[in-house]
C-alpha cells in the first residue's frame, strides 16, 4: 500500500495471525505521537510486535512507558490489559512496579498472570542496572576449627 492508504492498510494487517506480518505492519507506520491507535500493537502477544510499536512511539518522541501508563488508565478494550501490563514490564521503570503489584489482586485471572509476568520482566530489566555492592566472603567465626591459631 502506498500513499494515504498506507497507514490504514498497516493497521488492518495488525489483525493477521502471523506475528512477522504484524511486526512489518507496525514498522511500516510513520512515527506515532498518540499511543491509542497503536494500543493493539503495544499489547500484542508477540514481544517483537510490542517492541516495534514502542520504536514507533520513540520515533514520534513519546515515552513508551508513559504510553502504557496512559493506556492502562483508560484501556481501549479490556482484552488489551494483559498485553499492556506485560509491555509496561518490558519498558517501565522501578516506579511502575507499584502499578503491576496493584494488579496482582485483579478479579480477572489473565490480568493477575500478566501483572506477575510484567513484574518479573521489569525486575529483570532494572535490577541488573542497579549498583550492587560485590559480596564479600564471610569471615570464619572465631570458634571454627582451623581458624584459631591455638587449635
Descriptive overview:
The protein has helices at 6-13, 19-28, 39-42, 47-59, 64-73, 81-91, 97-102, 109-126. It has 151 residues and is an all-alpha fold. It has one domain (3-126). The longest helix has 18 residues, at 109-126. It is globular and about 40 Å long.
Share of residues in helices: 40-55%
Q: Mind summarizing the main beta sheet?
A: none
Number of helices: 8
Which residue ranges are poorly predicted, with pLDDT under 50 across at least 5 consecutive positions? none
**Kindly state the mean pLDDT as a whole number?**
85
Short description:
The chain has helices at about 5-15, 20-30, 40, 45-60, 65-75, 80-90, 95-100, 110-125.
Q: What are the defining features of this structure?
A:
single chain, 151 residues, 8 helices
Amino acid at each position: 500500500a502506498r500513499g494515504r492508504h498506507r497507514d490504514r492498510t498497516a493497521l488492518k494487517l495488525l489483525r493477521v495471525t502471523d506475528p512477522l506480518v504484524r511486526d512489518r505492519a507496525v514498522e511500516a507506520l510513520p512515527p506515532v505521537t498518540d499511543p491509542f491507535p497503536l494500543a493493539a500493537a503495544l499489547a500484542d502477544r508477540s514481544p517483537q510486535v510490542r517492541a516495534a510499536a514502542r520504536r514507533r512511539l520513540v520515533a514520534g518522541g513519546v515515552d513508551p512507558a508513559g504510553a502504557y501508563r496512559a493506556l492502562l488508565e483508560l484501556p481501549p478494550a479490556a482484552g488489551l490489559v494483559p498485553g499492556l501490563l506485560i509491555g509496561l514490564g518490558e519498558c517501565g521503570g522501578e516506579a511502575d512496579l507499584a502499578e503491576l503489584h496493584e494488579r496482582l489482586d485483579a478479579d480477572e485471572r489473565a490480568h493477575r498472570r500478566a501483572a506477575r509476568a510484567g513484574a518479573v520482566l521489569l525486575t529483570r530489566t532494572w535490577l541488573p542496572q542497579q549498583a550492587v555492592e560485590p559480596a564479600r566472603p564471610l569471615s570464619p567465626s572465631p570458634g571454627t576449627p582451623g581458624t584459631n591459631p591455638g587449635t
